């Protein structure tokens, strides 16, 4: 993800005062930056050796989703009540995986993470539960995962948050990659992806998403430029009265600010 810790500190101080084509596997030899930690105001942050924040956990609420952009990544909940299989590409601090695992007790949750150090630090410092019959953390390339035909047509919602220490945009962002993500989803499946609105990669990603999905809507920018795009495999019927009712139920059961997601969708549909 793309948030600088100093911006989070400033905010805290302010508050207190069709079928995918086969993708040729790129010859990507990962060179992992060091995994580092910091803490501020009761929140533990994950970094890759820079000030860029890769995830966060409030120490007193380890299963809650701390960052607003990460909360927005759950916006698919407005459309899917009872998911069977949820997937996160990019583990971060495990916030989305932990929340999904606790909230949807009948769903399988899969997280895909290439860096073994991130998995280890999530287990030791971010309260990530051990793998069991419902939770599976896979140490593998997200590109390999979405290209595996065994995963196609099996996922209700997929959340994509694939950044490295260089903060130059998502490490996977081609139309072919997003086509493969769409192929993994069920017919009514939804993808949410963390983009960086102030970066040249934003326009490229949105264009690629719109090539692969029937409809793509972007929520308002938060933090230092994070924009969550919601991509629908099939164009949804947007009944905003019903969505606001659904948002109230989500807020009551999870405390997530779901009404703001509906406001954002409404604004995206009526930009003027």
Number of strands: 11
Tell me the major beta sheet: 7 strands, mixed
Portion of residues in helices?
Answer: 25-40%
Tally of contiguous helical segments: 9
The spatial strand order of the largest sheet comes to 7-6-5-8-9-11-10
Rg, alpha carbons: 17 Å
Output mean pLDDT: 89
- The ordered string of helix (H) and strand (E) elements is EHEEEHEHEHEHEHEHEEHH
Beta content comes to 15-25%
Distance between the amino and carboxyl termini: 29 Å
Q: Which structural class best describes the helix and strand composition?
A: alpha/beta
Q: Which stretches are poorly predicted, pLDDT < 50 over at least 5 residues? A: 15-26
What would you call the shape? globular
Explain this structure:
The protein is α/β, with parallel strands linked by helices and 272 residues long. The longest helix is centred in the C-terminal third of the chain and has 15 residues. The chain contains nine helices and eleven strands.
Blueprint (SSEs and pairs):
Blueprint (H helix, E strand, L loop, with lengths): L2 E2 H12 L19 E5 L2 E5 L4 E7 L9 H5 L12 E5 L5 H9 L4 E6 L2 H10 L9 E5 L2 H6 L7 E6 L14 H10 E12 L4 H12 L2 E4 L7 E7 L7 H15 L3 H12 L3
Parallel strand pairs: 5-6, 5-8, 6-7, 8-9
Antiparallel strand pairs: 1-4, 2-3, 3-4, 9-11, 10-11
